[in-house]
Structures are given as C-alpha cells and as structure tokens.
Design a protein that fits this description.
The protein is mainly β and 448 residues long. It folds into 3 domains: 37-179, Immunoglobulin-like (Sandwich), CATH 2.60.40; 185-262 and 418-444, Sandwich (Immunoglobulin-like); 267-398, Immunoglobulin-like, CATH 2.60.40. Helix content is 9%, strand content 41%. It has 5 helices and 30 strands. The strands form 7 sheets. Strands 1, 3, 5, 7, 11 and 12 form a 6-stranded mixed sheet that branches. Strands 13, 14, 17, 18 and 19 form a 5-stranded antiparallel sheet that branches. A 5-stranded mixed sheet has the order 21-22-24-27-26, with no helix packed on it. α1 (2-10) runs antiparallel to α2. It is globular.
Length: 448
C-alpha cells in the first residue's frame, strides 16, 4: 500500500493542469501516509543506540572520512554516509525515518513535512554481502540526504532505523546528526583552566559571538551554546551562560564553568592484518568460526608522564590487509573476538570499569563493562569487532550515581593532551517553534 502511495505521488507532476484536484489529492495522500506511518517520536530516546545484537559497526560520517563528525551544512550539496552490518542472519527489510529534535535532544514540535521534503518512511535498499570472510554479514549503506527525502531546516536530527512485522514496528538503531547554517561569526580558543585545582589537567573553550547578522533581544533565552569534547555527548556542556554582553558581542569565558578534564591521548590497537601481529596485538588465533585477538596487557597511566601519540580522539577506521584485499574494507574486513586486559592488583569495590570510545558507542552499560579476573589480576573484556584501527580508554564509574565518570583515574590527565572541542550554537528567536543550529566549528587544543 505504501509503495502505491509513492507511485501516486510521483504521478502528481503529470496532473499539474488540474491544480484544485492536485491539492485535494496531495492532502489525501498525506493523510493516508500518516495513517500508515505509526512511530511516535515522543516514545523514542534521542540518543545513539543499537538495540539489536546482530547489528554491528554502526557508523554515520562524511564520505571518505570515517572519523569525521556527523554534521552537514544546510546550504551545501554534501551528504552523510550511514552504514552498518547485519551479522550471520538472513537479510531483513530495514526502514528509516528522521525526527527533528531540540538543542538538548528532545523531539521538537515540528511535523515531518515542516522539516523534510519527501517520504516519511523509506526502505534501505543499498546492501552487499561480505566477501571471503569466515563471519558472513550483509553491509547496508544509506546516503543522507537522498532522492527519497531531504531535510530543509537546521538543527538536531535523529535517524531512526526499524523493521516491520505485520502491524508491529521494532526500533533497531537511533543515530544523532546535526545540520547547521553558519549565519554568525564566532571567535574561539582553547585555554587552560586557571583555577588552582584545574590548572594542570583541564582545558576550556573560550568563545565570543559577534552580534552582526542576527537580531538577538534576550541572549540568555534565545542562544543555547553546546560544547562537546571529542564528540562525547555524556559529558557535553549545555546551557552555558554568557559572562559579558554589549551591542557588538556576547562572550562566554569562565574560569570554572566550562572546564573539561583533558585526560590523556587515547590508547590504540590495529588488527588490519590477521596473518601477522599488528600494533599492540599480542596473539592471533583462529578457532572456527572466529579469529581470537589478544591485545597487549594495559596498565594504569595515572602516574605516568604525558605520552604524545597520534590518535583519532576515540574513533575507529575499518581497514583490512586480508588476502591482499584493501579496496573494499567495508565488505572484505573480517570480524574477530578481541580481548582487552587492564592489569590492576586488586578489584575496586566502589566503582565499575568500562571500555570507552566509539568502539562501544561511548555507552556506559553491560556491553562495555569489564569484569575482574582474580587469577590474572586484571580487568577483562571481550568485544566482537570488525578489522581496523581503534582508539579506546578505560573509564572509572563510581557506584554513587551522583558522581561523574572519571576519565583520568586509569589514563592520567595532562593539560597538553590533544582534544577536539565542538561548538554548536543554537538559536530560537522569539515566536519560533524550533531551535536553529546557526553555527558549528571544531577547535583543537593543539592547533590553536
């Protein structure tokens, strides 16, 4: 029935001379589509989440830049590439839609037709089977925007992937991305925090919004800056107040309100080659049907001096050298079971330890939690990962939920650590019904 709606909608261009009939028909089609499409935005958490265990390596990034951020310029012809793998199961029919969100990731009040041109429900039709791999999987790809749907307003968006069975809809993946329109000028710089307890281990982003080009009457309520460190939403800074304002500029420069733990450079490993031990790989063993990868044992870096290394700030890149296959890593890379070990003499009673980075979706849950092994005196974790180069770190989370996760307990913290800080500036003018994203930029703590 839905495809019939699509077909009829495409035929509207043929019926242009019949404008009155065309209008009535279009209203009827919208009504029918609303009856068919039954996802309630208010029932969905606007977070990055994979709800199905056999869906792996879920990515959303600019094409040809896997570690890039899921951000688009509203006025450009660029697009984002969304992809994932369905592991060892018959190919399913996957559908998707988009939900417009507020600056703080709640569903906005906009209806679909107010922020999108095209169809509210579409199927992901671009997929390929894996080649020459022991673990069989199907690789799905989707371009955003595409010929079926485009997005017309700036702001926060949630990509929702789901399956349908009779009248039931099952949410499988939710993924955040942003569309911006740069209509203001902003100056910014990463500085050390000058407060005594923060000076050696913390960084902050100081920035100033120039008021030309936009009418702002109440900056505190109309402007909503959001600052992220390395695209980590769980410690993002929301609702930062300004500290100075005049007719020309609005400044956000604080000694304590905008500080981030600088932590350390991310740990890394590379297993693009399964015939030879690559960087930080201790052992490779094949036990049908899986490869088992043991990484070099990690140790606490709390009291170690700063170690400079070229990381990708928590992300990962899919690569393979298997059987000289390098051209199509998305379908030629093997999956393997990777073992992480963090040496620690005694278990910590009042806290849990988690693997942190894009490899675990930056989530703090059972899928990223390490368990203590009394025999090896170490925290251990097994992950099912696709061949490539990965960044990660260890996060300590106190069982007292009022305390923030500790990024430096095992990693140490150094003011000279290289970090990216993403500045997102949202604007809701008086009388508007949604948050526009009017500025986006990345500030680097080293390349100032």
């Amino acid at each position: 029935m839905f495809y019939l709606v699509k077909l009829n909608f495409c035929m509207l261009t043929i019926l242009m001379p019949y404008r009155k009939q065309l209008f009535l028909l279009s209203v009827a089609l919208i009504f029918i589509n609303n009856l068919i499409f039954s996802i309630n935005p208010d029932s969905i958490a606007c977070i990055d989440k994979v709800y199905e265990k056999n869906l792996k390596t879920v990515r959303l990034h600019p094409p040809d830049w896997e570690s890039g951020y899921p951000v688009l310029d509203l006025n450009s012809d660029n697009y984002l590439l969304f992809n994932f793998d369905q592991i060892e199961s018959p190919v399913d029919n996957f559908y998707y839609t988009f939900i417009h969100c507020t600056y703080n990731w709640q569903p906005s009040n906009l209806m679909f037709f107010e922020y999108a041109d095209g169809f509210e429900e579409n199927e992901i039709l671009d997929y390929e089977e894996s080649q020459s791999t022991f673990v069989q999987y199907t690789h799905f790809t989707l371009e955003i925007p595409n010929t079926d749907v485009s997005l017309t307003k700036s702001g926060n968006y949630l990509l929702v992937v789901y399956s349908k069975n009779d009248d039931n809809i099952q949410i499988l993946i939710t993924k955040r991305f942003m569309i911006y329109e740069n209509i203001v000028e902003v100056t910014g710089r990463i500085n050390p925090c000058i407060e005594g307890e923060y000076r050696k281990a913390y960084q902050k982003l100081d920035f100033t919004v120039l008021r030309k080009g936009i009418n702002i009457y109440d900056a505190q309520s109309e402007l909503k800056p959001v600052v992220l460190q390395n695209y980590q939403w769980n410690n993002a800074l929301f609702n930062l107040p300004y500290n100075f304002i005049d007719n020309e500029r609005i400044s956000y420069e604080w000694d304590d309100k905008s500080c981030f733990d600088a932590s350390n450079e991310y740990r890394y490993f590379n297993f693009n080659n399964l015939e030879l031990n690559s960087e930080r790989v201790e052992n490779i063993e094949f036990k049908k049907p899986y490869y088992y990868i043991s990484l070099v044992n990690d140790k606490s870096e709390m009291f170690s001096p700063y170690r400079s290394s070229q990381d990708i700030n928590g992300s990962y890149v899919i690569r393979t050298n298997r059987f000289a296959n390098k051209n199509f890593p998305e379908i030629q890379s093997e999956y393997a079971i990777v073992k992480f070990s963090l040496e620690y003499n005694t278990p910590i009673n009042n806290a849990d330890i988690y693997l942190y980075g894009d490899l675990t979706g930056y989530e703090i849950n059972e899928n990223s939690k390490l368990l203590y092994n009394l025999e090896s005196r170490s925290y251990e974790k097994l992950l099912f990962l696709k061949q490539g180069y990965y960044n990660y770190k260890y996060l300590l989370v106190d069982k007292d939920v009022t305390k923030s996760p500790d990024h430096s307990f095992f990693e140490g913290s150094h003011q000279q650590t290289e970090n990216n800080y993403l500045l997102l500036l949202y604007y809701r003018e008086i009388g508007s019904s949604y948050d526009r994203l009017i500025y986006f930029s990345v500030f680097n703590s080293v390349n100032k």
